[in-house]
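Lecture notes, continued. The same structure-token format from the folding unit now serves as the input rather than the output. Read the line below as a description of shape only.
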């Protein structure tokens, strides 16, 4: 079987539709996945380009699939619609997403972080912009702080002379987390 270089993923509440194409654009994969099967499916695939319509839980799935080594692109539904070849259904939508993500002039939606996505659900437009800029500043400060304190290591070394493990101090990004995330154990 030829491996997919591009995958279109039509997300839904319980059943997701996958359409894979090779380098020439030929369909090599059509499959329905239950929500619980998505991570396992993408972890078994070679790294490829994955297209998803930007709606509902798309940002969550983009983070999850991207974390497995794939390149994920989100597209607004109105830009995918012209690529639907016949009646609208999940199979045709997945094929249209797979086709649209390869287009050179496609406009993509930036992927949101989990913190930003949680905060946006309760903020005005100005509040979202302000939160995004503050979050980016804190992330930069956190990275600078880490590089200054431990330039040769990604983790703070733990001293051997203490009987109990010494905990790392919280990062700036951790300190800036919304209370709702902290109470959920994130």
């Amino acid at each position: 079987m030829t491996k997919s270089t591009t995958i279109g993923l039509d997300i839904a509440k319980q059943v997701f539709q996958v359409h894979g194409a090779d380098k020439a654009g030929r369909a090599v994969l059509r499959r329905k996945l239950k929500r619980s099967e998505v991570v396992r499916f993408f972890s078994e695939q070679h790294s490829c380009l994955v297209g998803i319509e930007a709606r509902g839980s798309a940002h969550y799935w983009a983070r999850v699939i991207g974390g497995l080594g794939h390149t994920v692109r989100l597209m607004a539904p109105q830009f995918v619609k012209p690529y639907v070849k016949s009646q609208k259904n999940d199979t045709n939508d997945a094929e249209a997403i797979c086709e649209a993500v390869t287009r050179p002039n496609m406009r993509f939606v930036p992927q949101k972080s989990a913190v930003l996505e949680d905060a946006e659900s309760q903020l005005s437009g100005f509040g979202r912009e302000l939160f995004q800029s503050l979050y980016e500043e804190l992330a930069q400060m956190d990275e600078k702080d880490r590089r200054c304190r431990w330039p040769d290591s990604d983790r703070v070394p733990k001293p051997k002379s203490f009987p109990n493990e010494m905990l790392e101090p919280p990062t700036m990004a951790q300190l800036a987390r919304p209370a709702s995330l902290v109470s959920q154990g994130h």
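Point for the exam: Helices lie at 38-44, 58-66, 77-80, 90-100, 114-120, 125-149, 172-175, 179-183.
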